[in-house]
Amino acid sequence: MRAPDVELLWWEGCPSTERALADLREALRDTGLDATSVHMREIENDADALAAAFVGSPTILIDGADLQPPRDDEPVGLTCRIYHRRDGRISPIPDPDDVRDALIRAATRAQVRTE
């Protein structure tokens, strides 16, 4: 499988960045992908947030697509992000199953394109 481009967007005030990174790397390992391939991009100010359409930290992009696309009414800015888990709970990090599934879909799409 070709490894998808994985990016974690974060801002300094986010207490969930390290946990999100650890879970993301675990999901990469679980799917047979390179766990060291995560690109970290710090969002430092409002201009960065606007340019990246950043709705909070941590945000995970896989091949440029947000793991959990934000709703139209979610404001852009330097804030902590909330995720909706599969079991209905709210969390500061995405559901690990959602991360794994998105990585598998991206790797599979890339493999189909190269065949």
SSE layout:
Layout: E1 6-10, H1 17-30, E2 39-42, H2 46-52, E3 59-62, E4 65-66, E5 83-84, E6 90-91, H3 96-114
Parallel strand pairs: 1-2
Antiparallel strand pairs: 1-3, 3-4, 5-6
Helix pairs in contact: 1-3
In short:
This protein has 3 helices and 6 strands.
What does this structure look like?
The chain has helices spanning about 15-30, 45-50, 95-115; strands at about 5-10, 40, 60, 65, 85, 90. A four-stranded mixed sheet has the order 2-1-3-4, covered by helices on one side. The chain has a two-stranded antiparallel ribbon with strand order 5-6. It has about 120 residues and is α+β, with helices and mostly antiparallel strands. The model has no long low-confidence stretch (mean pLDDT about 90). The chain has three helices and six strands; from the N terminus they run βαβαββββα. The chain is globular, with a radius of gyration of 14 Å. The chain has a single domain (about 5-115), classed as Glutaredoxin (3-Layer(aba) Sandwich), CATH 3.40.30. β3 (about 60) and β4 form a beta hairpin.
Please list the strands of the largest sheet in the order they lie side by side. 2-1-3-4
Q: What is the CATH topology assignment?
A: Glutaredoxin
Order of helices and strands: EHEHEEEEH
Helix content: 25-40%
* Shape, per Cα inertia axes: globular
Q: Can you tell me the number of structural domains? A: 1
Rounded mean pLDDT score: 92
What structural class do you assign from the helix and strand content? Answer: alpha+beta
Low-confidence stretches: none
Number of helices, where a helix is a run of at least 4 consecutive DSSP H or I residues: 3
CATH architecture: 3-Layer(aba) Sandwich
What is the β-strand count? 6
Q: Tell me the strand percentage band.
A: 15-25%
The CATH C-level name is Alpha Beta
The largest pleated sheet is described as: 4 strands, mixed
The span between the termini is: 11 Å
Radius of gyration from the CA trace? Answer: 14 Å
